[in-house]
Amino acid sequence: MMEVLSLPNPAAHAISIRAKALAFEDPNSKILLERIRLVAPSDASVLVTGESGTGKELIARLVHTLSERVDRPFIAVNCGAFSETLIESELFGHERGAFTGALDSRPGWFEAANGGTLFLDEVGDLPLSAQVKLLRVLQEREVVRVGSRKAIKIDVRLVAATNVKLEAAVRAGNFREDLYYRLNVAKLALLPLRQRPDDILPLTKHFIDIYTKRLRISTPTIADAALRRLQQYSWPGNIRELENVIHHTLLISRGQQIEASDFQFSSLGVLSSLNEGDVAAADGLHAPAEQRTADSASPLQALKKALTRLYDENPPDLWQDIEAAVFSTAYDYCDRNQLQTSRLLNLSRNIVRARLAQLGILKLQAADSI
Question: I need a labelling partner for 165 at 20 to 30 A (CA). Which of 50, 112, 174, 254 fits?
Answer without folding.
Answer: 112
